[in-house]
Recover the amino acids of this structure.
């Protein structure tokens, strides 16, 4: 295999065929090592309604980062893939496709329509898997599941029957949210409240047997067709004389009573409230208290039914227009006042939801919620990242209502209940024996089956399933904060009820991806970004880098093509570094690298820069691992970026040129070994985030073998730590940087040699590294001593452990130099103030780790030395 890389990084070439090679090599499957600690993730299943969006790309990227790192760390990792059938959304998509050919679902019937949906599922599941491949997600396809496959269907039936037998699932008539387009019930959290322009319609109802009227205000005048009472507050003196009388509903002339109820607010509106029990949740409660009739005045499709008189058959909004016109003609429309108010819309179809009395199946939530709340105080509590989302979860569980779980669809788990002509009902996991039984036509809410996902995918209800025993509870769930209520909460209470355990140990919550202006991406705004288009242009690695580094846990992130450019440039930088190293590492063997590193560790070979970069590599591996364990991928990425770009590329690689362009072959061998080792470790640290190009380079390294997917993740190697080397090279870098800054200030290019004097207690070290100083600063004369005469006319800089002077007579202005130094003095004073404030905080000193406090004390000493030196230099210049 050639160890050459292409002159230019091309993500399309690098990623082509790579995923298929990984699958062929079975590197994504669990190791099967019984001694390894298991680590499992079940993918938040995308629904089969179309392509992956950026939000799901974010989910999968973060999960893949976690599982790839854990795999490299030696865990027995399982990442189980799957997809969700997404009842309402998928049925709507298939119905829309059929409508293009003039076909209605009813024309086909239930069974033939479901055949069409299965065809859709197969088509889009294939597309999603192809997109997963482009993203590079390392799942075990041998365990792939679908929420309508037989194993999960068995789990759904078992859960339904057990909850029913406990009395926690029941069938009854209640007010629910109705989607007139999908013609199905919705749960509360499937309703999105949006602000829209509406109006308050002020209408008069005549008192029966008199010429008196009462005025009511409503935003939905069409609902008066279902009114069964009006109410006033018993303390309202304005209406006491009317209590017990009746009003006549306009147009339809139905007589309804005037009652008292605390729901009527004397301070709000006219104080008179119309009661429409079958179409308003508050009115439903009033009706229950007063035993009022409940009149449903709407069909499933949102048209007015037979209870609407002459408006029967009209769409609800068309009926509103007609009713308003008729009321106006009768003189009973007093006023129309515009109002901006929140109205519920279906999360799936987008239409205005209709509160509607309906017979449905419900889950009683009180005991399930109590169990979930209590569990969060135990050792089995689910850990939320960030922790504030635990409060979000708890608040919802403490205020949860009974869950309406039936849906009037075909594409779903059909409810396991059967009825016969005798009016009997049977609930069971299988159909009852005998003739004359008909299964309930309704199906279950998609989230009912999705709530079982972490354990139903592992083989439950067979608790002896090998995967269930080995990998459940799962380790980490990654998902957006927008489905904590829909999915996360339900998985927790269902898992506790049926397995006695939390479904996962950790929940990592990320935010939403917004456009560059901070707006939520949507079809209506036309600002959506297809992740596959991004991959086509920049490659999956660049997209994954952006998604992992975009924000902190729980925070939204703005998509930016500038950030994508930066990600591509970073990868290209690493590519070019790798090319340089590989071109200088021909004929290097793994054994020679190992031998050379041992010599460097033992200080029998190598130079201070070699020991410095290995020390910095150790620190980087430690800090990156710590941040990854806390799911702070952005922080880990920042640490990696700084090490790779600044310390490794900009400094170490440049410093090695002093050796590589020299004559000492033995020293060159050591440098090559260190370069290869650091590159190898950098690729391993980067691999979980950017898998494709890291594998491409890794397999070309002469000191590696096998796939990086299963290579060992970097660990801290104490034998490489060398604090003196680290401090020494840090001083060298600071010195070189200071010289460059001084040259820039007086417009003296590096090509022009100038004299340089360095006063330092570390003169011996600086003399030892003087070849580096000369290479990077170009002094005409270099003097380094512990004590030396300070020139009067010189630019100066104070760095940690040394004072630097550049005699530039004729190039500097003493007054300007004093002004510059005074600014520098102010900078060090500011640093001193900050550190003194922190060390003066008793709580900080008492609670922080000893090493953190000591680090601040070291800063204080360093800043004080620099402050004193600059101050003294200013005094010298002023005296002269």
């Amino acid at each position: 295999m050639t160890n050459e890389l292409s002159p230019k990084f091309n993500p399309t070439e690098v990623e082509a065929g790579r995923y298929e090679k990984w699958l062929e090599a079975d590197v994504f499957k669990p190791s099967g090592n019984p001694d390894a600690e298991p680590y499992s993730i079940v993918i938040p299943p995308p629904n089969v309604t179309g392509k992956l969006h950026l939000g799901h790309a974010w989910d999968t990227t973060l999960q893949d980062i976690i599982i790839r790192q854990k795999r490299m760390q030696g865990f027995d990792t399982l990442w189980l893939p799957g997809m969700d059938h997404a009842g309402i959304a998928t049925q709507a998509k298939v119905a829309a496709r059929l409508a293009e050919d003039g076909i209605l679902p009813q024309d086909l019937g239930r069974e033939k329509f479901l055949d069409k949906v299965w065809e859709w599922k197969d088509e889009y599941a294939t597309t999603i898997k192809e997109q997963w491949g482009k993203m590079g997600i390392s799942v075990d396809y041998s365990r792939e599941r679908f929420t309508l496959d037989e194993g999960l269907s068995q789990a759904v039936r078992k859960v339904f029957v057990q909850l029913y037998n406990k009395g926690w699932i029941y069938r009854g008539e209640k007010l629910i949210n109705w989607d007139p387009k999908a013609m199905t019930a919705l749960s509360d959290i499937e309703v999105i409240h949006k602000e829209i322009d509406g109006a308050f319609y002020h209408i008069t109802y005549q008192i029966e047997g008199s010429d008196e009227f009462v005025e009511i205000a409503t935003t939905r005048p069409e609902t008066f067709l279902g009114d069964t009472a009006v109410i006033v507050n018993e303390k309202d003196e304005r209406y006491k004389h009317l209590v017990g009388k009746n009003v006549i509903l306009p147009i339809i002339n139905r007589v309804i009573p005037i009652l008292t109820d605390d729901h009527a607010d004397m301070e709000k509106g006219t104080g008179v409230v119309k009661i429409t029990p079958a179409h308003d949740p508050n009115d439903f409660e009033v009706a229950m208290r007063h035993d009022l009739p409940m009149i449903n005045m709407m069909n499933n499709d949102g048209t007015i039914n037979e209870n609407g008189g002459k408006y029967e058959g009209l769409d609800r909004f068309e009926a509103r227009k007609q009713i308003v016109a008729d009321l106006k003609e009768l003189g009973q429309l007093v006023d129309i006042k515009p109002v901006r108010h929140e109205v519920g819309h279906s999360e799936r179809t987008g239409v205005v939801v209709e509160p509607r009395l309906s017979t449905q199946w419900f889950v009683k939530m009180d005991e399930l919620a109590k169990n979930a709340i209590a569990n969060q105080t135990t050792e089995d509590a689910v850990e939320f990242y960030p922790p504030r989302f635990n409060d979000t979860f708890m608040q919802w569980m403490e205020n949860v209502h009974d869950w309406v779980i039936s849906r009037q669809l075909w594409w779903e788990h059909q409810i396991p209940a059967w009825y016969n002509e005798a009016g009997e009902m049977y609930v069971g996991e299988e159909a009852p024996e005998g003739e004359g039984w008909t299964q309930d036509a309704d199906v279950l809410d998609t989230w009912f089956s999705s709530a079982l996902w972490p354990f139903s995918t592992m083989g439950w209800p067979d608790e002896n399933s090998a995967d269930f025993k080995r990998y459940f509870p799962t380790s980490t769930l990654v998902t957006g904060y927008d489905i904590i209520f829909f999915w996360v909460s339900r998985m927790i209470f269902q898992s506790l009820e049926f397995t006695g355990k939390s479904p996962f140990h950790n929940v990592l919550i990320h935010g939403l991806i917004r456009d560059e202006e901070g707006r939520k991406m949507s079809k209506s705004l036309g600002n959506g970004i297809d992740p596959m288009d991004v991959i086509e242009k920049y490659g999956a690695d660049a997209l994954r880098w952006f998604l992992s580094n975009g924000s902190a846990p729980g925070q939204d992130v703005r998509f930016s093509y500038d950030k994508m450019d930066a990600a591509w440039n970073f990868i290209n930088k690493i590519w070019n570094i790798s090319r340089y190293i590989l071109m200088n590492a021909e004929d290097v063997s793994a054994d020679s690298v190992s031998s050379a590193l041992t010599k460097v560790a033992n200080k029998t070979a190598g130079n201070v820069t070699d020991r410095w970069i290995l020390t910095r590599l150790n620190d980087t591996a430690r800090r990156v691992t710590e941040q990854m364990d806390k799911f702070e991928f952005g922080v880990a990425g920042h640490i990696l970026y700084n090490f790779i770009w600044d310390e490794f590329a900009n400094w170490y690689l440049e410093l090695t040129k002093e050796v590589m362009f020299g004559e000492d072959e033995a020293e060159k061998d050591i440098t090559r070994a260190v370069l290869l080792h650091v590159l190898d470790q950098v690729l391993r640290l980067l691999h979980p985030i950017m898998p494709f190009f890291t594998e491409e380079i890794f397999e070309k390294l002469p000191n590696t073998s096998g796939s990086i997917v299963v290579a060992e993740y970097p660990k801290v190697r104490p034998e490489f730590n060398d604090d003196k080397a680290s401090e020494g090279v840090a001083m060298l870098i600071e010195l070189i940087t200071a010289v460059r800054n001084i040259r820039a200030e007086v417009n003296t290019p590096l090509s022009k040699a100038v004299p340089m004097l360095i006063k330092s207690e570390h003169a011996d070290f600086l003399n030892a590294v003087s070849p580096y100083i000369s290479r990077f600063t170009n002094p005409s004369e270099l003097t380094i001593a512990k004590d030396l005469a300070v020139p009067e006319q010189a630019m100066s800089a104070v760095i940690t452990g040394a004072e630097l002077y550049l005699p530039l007579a004729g190039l500097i202005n003493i007054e300007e130099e004093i002004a510059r130094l005074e600014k520098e003095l102010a900078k060090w004073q500011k640093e001193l103030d900050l550190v003194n404030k922190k060390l003066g905080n008793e709580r900080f000193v008492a609670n922080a780790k000893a090493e953190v406090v000591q680090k601040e004390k070291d800063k204080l000493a360093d800043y004080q030395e620099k402050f004193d030196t600059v101050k003294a230099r200013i005094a010298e210049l002023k005296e002269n």
